[in-house]
Design goal:
0% strand, rod-shaped, 3 helices, mainly alpha
Length: 89
């Protein structure tokens, strides 16, 4: 559920990034419009970085509490065909 929310927020941030680019292109050299577009782009990039960091933290916490081991994996179980070679006859 939380990953869906973070994905939606990420999509919104990308839309703002595109919107800032459109504003920058259509500013026609007006300094106030250029500055507004630059701020929109900057804040959208900062938002994407925060969202990316949130995804990393959420996935780490979920693995730590649900998956066990804080992201560390348990060694793989031996395959059945390998077991017959490891056990004495």
């Amino acid at each position: 559920m939380l990953n869906v929310f973070l994905s939606l927020v990420g999509i919104i941030a990308v839309v703002f990034l595109v919107w800032g680019g459109i504003q920058y292109i259509t500013s026609a050299g007006e300094e106030s419009k250029i500055e507004h577009a630059k701020k929109t782009i900057t804040y959208a990039i900062i938002g994407l970085l925060v969202i990316g960091l949130a995804v990393v933290v959420v996935n780490f916490v979920v693995k730590a509490f649900v998956g066990g081991g804080g992201g560390q994996q348990a060694p793989p179980a031996p395959a059945p065909e390998r077991d017959r070679f490891l056990t004495p006859a």
